[in-house]
Amino acid sequence: MKVSTQAAPRVSCPERAVLEHLTSRWGVLVLSALLEGGRRFGELRREISEVSEIAVSEKMLTQTLRTLERDGFVGRHARPVIPPHVDYDLTPLGEQAARQVRALAGWTEEHVPQVLAAREEYDARTPG
Amino acid sequence: MKVSTQAAPRVSCPERAVLEHLTSRWGVLVLSALLEGGRRFGELRREISEVSEIAVSEKMLTQTLRTLERDGFVGRHARPVIPPHVDYDLTPLGEQAARQVRALAGWTEEHVPQVLAAREEYDARTPG
DNA sequence: CAGGATCCGCGCCGATACTG
DNA sequence: CAGTATCGGCGCGGATCCTG
C-alpha cells in the first residue's frame, strides 16, 4: 500500500506538475475530446482509442480523469443507476486549459511535416 | 550499445513525439529562455537551473538541445575556438513553437493557485 | 567549456484479474 | 458499465567519469 496516490515523482514545483497533467499522453486527448462536449467513460475510451490509433487502458483513462478532476479541470457526474452511468465534462477552468492545449497540439499537428523534413536533413548531415 | 539514440519509446505517432519534446521538463525551459535571445550552453544551464530551482544536468540539457535541434526548432552554432563556444538560438519554426509553449506555460503558471484550491477541495471531499 | 559514455534506481504504464 | 488492485518490464533521467 502506498501512502500517496499521486504525490511528487520528480516534479517538485506545482506548475510543472500541472503542465505534466495537461500535456500527458492521454490528458491532451481527454481535454480535446471533452472540449466538444461531455462524454461517458466508455465513449471517451472508444473515441480516444480511435483517434490515437492506440487503445487507452481503463487504468490510464481512469487515472488521467482522476488527476484532471482533482486539478479542477474536469467534472465527474455519477448517476446511481444500474448499470452505472458516469459523465465527464470540462469545468470553466478546464475549458480554458483545454483551449491552450488544443492550440499547442493543433500547431504541432500542422507542422509535423516540417519537423520530419528537418529531421531528415539533420540525419543526413550529422553522421557524415 | 543502443541501435537508436532517441527512437520511439512508447510514442508511436510523430505528433505525440514532437509534443513530448516541446513540453518536456527541460524543453519548456529551454524554449522559454531562447525566446529572449541566443544563449551559450553554460548560460542556458545556469539560467535554467536558476528559474526552475532545480539544476539541470549537462546530460539532460545536451539531450534536450539535440532533440530540439533535430526537430528543427533550435539552431546550433559552434565556433572552433579554445575553449569551445557554442551558441544556441531558435529557428523561425522554433520561435513559433516556443510562443505556443509559452502561452500554455504562462496560462498554467497564472492558474496554479486555482488548481491548488481545487485539489484541497477535492481531497477534503473525497476521503469522506 | 561543451559534451560523450556508462551505470542504475525509480516510477510510468500496460496486462491481467476481480468487483459493485 | 465503470471502475479497483496488483504485478512486472523498461525507459527516463540523475550521478559520475572521461575527452577534445
Automatic annotation (TrEMBL), chains A, B:
Keywords: DNA-binding, Transcription, Transcription regulation
InterPro entries: HTH_HxlR, WH-like_DNA-bd_sf, WH_DNA-bd_sf
Keyword Ribonucleoprotein: no
Top-level taxon: Bacteria
Protein name as annotated: Winged helix-turn-helix transcriptional regulator
Keyword Transcription: yes
Organism: Streptomyces polygonati
Domain HTH hxlR-type: start-end pairs: 13-116
